[in-house]
């Protein structure tokens, strides 16, 4: 099998159920999700040792789920097959957010992206995830989409924020508070 097909040379690409222009909102949505998956792979690649092993395993599962998101977003005709992304996946993300958040120190101010290498890359994932979510919103104004994909991406960006802080905490690197931030977060109830 050759990698190149030449079928996209005139600016169109295949999706599940047909062909669309390469700058179509659908391609932007699943393409940004694919970009997110690449950055996530980079974040995973710097997680060595035992401190982040459980987190790394969760992130590797998320990589597969991001492929599911892309597959659902590439579905031009929803009647062709059932959606892959479900509400259960969103619920699991919420449980993981609560679990990882419980081990981080309270924050009361905005924090700056950064700290350890893993945390820095997870913050990149968070912002690319937000862009993927925005692309889904744009697409949903033009076509039917699996609404669970949009919910998943919304929750996933919160997950990335939480685990970026978890990575810093486990590696003994403090979060950097935004110096000009007033207190905007309530402390966690223990």
Automatic annotation (TrEMBL):
<comment type="pathway">
    <text>Cofactor biosynthesis; adenosylcobalamin biosynthesis; adenosylcobalamin from cob(II)yrinate a,c-diamide: step 2/7.</text>
</comment>
<keyword id="KW-0547">Nucleotide-binding</keyword>
<protein>
    <recommendedName>
        <fullName>Corrinoid adenosyltransferase</fullName>
        <ecNumber>2.5.1.17</ecNumber>
    </recommendedName>
</protein>
<comment type="subunit">
    <text>Homotrimer.</text>
</comment>
<dbReference type="GO" id="GO:0008817">
    <property type="term" value="F:corrinoid adenosyltransferase activity"/>
</dbReference>
<dbReference type="InterPro" id="IPR029499">
    <property type="entry name" value="PduO-typ"/>
</dbReference>
<dbReference type="InterPro" id="IPR016030">
    <property type="entry name" value="CblAdoTrfase-like"/>
</dbReference>
<dbReference type="Pfam" id="PF01923">
    <property type="entry name" value="Cob_adeno_trans"/>
</dbReference>
<dbReference type="GO" id="GO:0009236">
    <property type="term" value="P:cobalamin biosynthetic process"/>
</dbReference>
<comment type="similarity">
    <text>Belongs to the Cob(I)alamin adenosyltransferase family.</text>
</comment>
<keyword id="KW-0067">ATP-binding</keyword>
<keyword id="KW-0808">Transferase</keyword>
<feature type="domain" description="Cobalamin adenosyltransferase-like">
    <location>
        <begin position="3"/>
        <end position="167"/>
    </location>
</feature>
<dbReference type="InterPro" id="IPR036451">
    <property type="entry name" value="CblAdoTrfase-like_sf"/>
</dbReference>
<keyword id="KW-0169">Cobalamin biosynthesis</keyword>
<dbReference type="GO" id="GO:0005524">
    <property type="term" value="F:ATP binding"/>
</dbReference>
């Amino acid at each position: 099998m050759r990698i190149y097909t030449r079928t996209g040379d005139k600016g169109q690409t295949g999706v599940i159920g047909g062909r669309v222009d390469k700058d179509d909102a659908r391609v932007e949505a699943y393409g940004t999700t694919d970009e997110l998956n690449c950055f996530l792979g980079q974040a995973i690649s710097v997680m060595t040792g035992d401190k982040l092993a459980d987190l790394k395993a969760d992130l590797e599962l998320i990589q597969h789920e991001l492929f599911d998101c892309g597959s659902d977003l590439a579905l031009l005709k929803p009647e062709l097959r059932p959606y892959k992304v479900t509400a259960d996946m969103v619920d699991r993300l919420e449980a993981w957010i609560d679990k990882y958040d419980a081990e981080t120190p309270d924050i009361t101010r905005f924090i700056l992206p950064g700290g350890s290498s893993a945390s820095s890359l997870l913050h990149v994932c968070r912002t690319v995830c937000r862009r993927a979510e925005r692309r889904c919103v744009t697409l949903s104004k033009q076509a039917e989409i699996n609404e669970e994909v949009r919910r998943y991406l919304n929750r996933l960006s919160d997950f990335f924020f939480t685990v970026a802080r978890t990575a810093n905490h486990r590696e003994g690197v403090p979060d950097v508070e935004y110096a000009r931030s007033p207190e905007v977060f309530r402390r966690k109830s223990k």
